[in-house]
Amino acid sequence: MVSQPELQNLHEAKIKIVSSNGDNNGTNRTNDHISNLNSNSTNGDVINLDHGDPKMFYPYWKQLDNECSVTIKASDLISYLANPNEPDFFFQMPEFNDAVRRIHRVVGNAVTDGRYIIGGTGSSQLFIAALRALASTMKETTSSKHVPVVCVEPFYSAYKEAVEQERSEIYKWKGDANRFEEQSGPYIEVVTSPNNPDGVCRKPVVKREGGMVLYDLAYYWPHYTPIISPADYDVMLFTLSKATGHAGSRVGWAIVKDQEIAKKMKQQILGMSIGSCQEGQLRATKILHFIADKYKHAAHYMVEKPLKVPKLFEVEGLFEFGQRILARRWEQLRTVVQRIGVIRLPEFSPGICSFSGKLTYPTPAFAWLECQTGEDAEQFMRNLKIQARNGSRFGNNIPGRYMRLSMMGDDHNFNLFLERLSSLSIME
Ligand code: PMP
Is residue 268 in contact with ligand 1, taking CB distance under 6 Å? Predict the structure, then answer.
């Protein structure tokens, strides 16, 4: 989900790309250009680790450009109807549903059997669609004006911003779930697990009659956290952005148990955007099947007899790649942080990952840092020309000495960031 300030950052980045390439007609803005631009950035530039742009996945997919591409002809996907057999759900491709179900079966991170799969323009759109569907269902049996929406602090900053931007007549942002005092009546608790910004695996805290829980499982993938068991909740949100790194395709999906809630969510997607982009669904289908195929050939996923591994699948698995990059970055960051001594990082306990069968430490997509000098953390980083997101954006009660830094950017920026952070210990 991209908030207003994030949009501004992305917009500025784009302007920079256009001017640096002299490409004013905007026809040449590929990832290669973005990557090249970053590699060329000089030591004086501000390093932007504010938004969670998953560019760490770029080298992985670059090696598969030929094998894992989708060709879309000029005459393809003309119709609004991707599936004329389902009049109330015509915008969703059945093959996209199949790919989503398959990847969850392979990874074992969510139950999809007997559940409805609803695609959206990123999980950002589905977040709003789910809130509208849940709140309108609750409003049928209550006289309260607004259904409160709560989430434990620190929470993903875009939730509050998105809900407030909605100015909904049926639900309202009420902040920290731990401070939610209404003893009766409906409510929606958003549970993000692992959590953005702090990487903690969470459970609901309000836990009383009349409430519904919306699970955002954007980071419940083996590269970020050990998979403990398949998630099996009423409404769960996932996104391609964090699963595979294809944030630009703007593909997300909801897994929904209840038929009525699913129906309402479909109506919302229909009303908001007459469905979701078929090019995106097609690309997601290809990529998700590629990953699932890869694991079909991986040793630990062989059920009975080993399969001959086609050359194409000799590449490292996406989840091993992601976990390896993040684990290395976390280790490097911990080493620097320990040396400079003025910043604290959270500690995580390992768990047995049912997907890999190994004991693994969480390697979250963001680092949630505390500045122990008591200073405003964002300012502290800005002095090093590092753009981080201030803790106060993640809840009214989170002090400014906290900050969030993305661990998902490209290598070049991450290494520059470590270099600048290390310079603190040299200065002392
Ligand atoms: N939920 C969480 C917890 C996120 O961190 C993000 C992306 N930053 C999203 C949802 C939105 O993802 P999408 O790109 O699918 O809109």
Answer: no
Under DSSP, the state recorded for 117 is: E
Average per-residue pLDDT in the chain? 88
| Spatial distance between the Cα atoms of 418 and 428, rounded to a whole number of angstroms | 16
Please tell me if the CB atom of residue 365 comes closer than 6 angstroms to any atom of ligand 1: no
Nearest CA to ligand 1 atom 15: 122
The rounded distance, in Å, linking the Cα atoms of 167 and 281 is: 30
* Three-state SS at 121: strand
Domains of the chain, residue spans: 4-62+317-422, 87-294
Burial class (CB in 10 A: 0-12, 13-18, 19+), 200: middle
User: In sequence order, what are the beta bridge partners of 255?
Assistant: 117, 236
| Ligand 1 pocket, residue 239 CB under 6 Å | yes
Whether 188 and 216 have beta carbons less than 8 Å apart is answered as no
Backbone angles phi, psi at 343, to 5 degrees: -130, 145
Nearest protein Cα to ligand 1, atom 5: 196
Domain 87-294 CATH class label: alpha beta
Cα–Cα distance for residue pair 154/368, rounded to 1 Å: 10
Cβ atoms of residues 57 and 247 within 8 Å: no
Which ligand 1 atom lies nearest to the CA of residue 1? 11
Per CATH, the number for 4-62+317-422 is 3.90.1150.10
Distance 124 CA to ligand 1 centre (A): 6
In the chain, which stretches have pLDDT less than 50? Answer: 2-3, 5-42, 299-303
- Helix ranges, 186-343 (H): 240-243, 259-273, 278-296, 318-340
Residue 161, ligand 1, Cβ within 6 A: no
